[in-house]
Amino acid sequence: MLLIKSHPTPNSPISSVNKSGRGFYHDATGELLCPVDFHQANPSHRTKEGIQNYEPDFQVTAHSWPAFLYSNGKYDPDDPMKGLFKSAWLIRTFKHIFTSPSSAEEIQPDKEEPLGYQESSHKWSRTSGEQCTRSNIATILGMRSVQLRAIAYSAVQLRFALSSCGAWHIIDDEFDHHQFYIYIIDYFEHPPTSAAKASIDTLLVWWNR
């Protein structure tokens, strides 16, 4: 798991085999999974307690954006789209799935550049970790650029990897992975305003540059 190899490493060890200690049972994974709405309205200890106790005001559903979708996990309530789907965790997950696990390790979450800065490397281009004879998933699928649905798929897989679920389930307590995917696709493909559409177009350009 990418989080295990992150720097600095989490204070409490995360098992690469047993997932029962992940999710909201671990501070590092719990913070990434936490809906950004909860971060803004409550102290962290109150949020953790409310989620773990399944309190009605702290239900974690597919209709709230988790922190791992945001650049550096930072949510701006005055600009909710700022940094959304630009997280290094999401980029690493995408590369792990579609290009190669070694290429994913080249993206360092703690070194992610803030929005507004040109990045030093192209997220889609072939890197040193991808020089291998076996075709990667992107090549097999004929993907020549990053697609919005591939980003959505990566987000679902990252959510599952961070959770405490030991095996794949569509439903994880109140969280529905299928609805999460649909919610992201709806956000990408049915923007409510022209400004929102322009933001999605810019996001796709950002992923492909």
What does it look like?
- The protein has 209 residues and is mainly alpha-helical.
- 41% of the residues lie in helices and 2% in strands.
- A hairpin with a 2-residue loop joins strand 1 (171-172) and strand 2.
- The protein has a two-stranded antiparallel sheet.
- The model is unreliable at 110-126 and 128-133 (pLDDT under 50).
Helical element count? 9
Given the helix and strand composition, which structural class is it?
A: mainly alpha
Main sheet makeup: 2 strands, antiparallel
Helix content: 40-55%
User: Strand arrangement, largest sheet?
Assistant: 1-2
| Topology, number of strands | 2
- Beta content comes to under 5%
Note poorly predicted spans.
110-126, 128-133
Helix-strand pattern:
HHHHHHHEEHH
Rg measurement, Å: 17 Å
Average pLDDT over all residues? 80
What characteristic shape results from the CA principal axes?
globular
Notable features of this structure?
209 residues, mainly alpha, two-stranded antiparallel ribbon
What is the topology?
Layout: H1 27-33, H2 36-41, H3 44-52, H4 88-98, H5 101-104, H6 137-141, H7 148-162, E1 171-172, E2 175-176, H8 177-189, H9 194-208
Short account of what is shown:
The chain is mostly helical and 209 residues long. The chain is 41% helix and 2% strand. Strand 1 (171-172) and strand 2 form a beta hairpin.
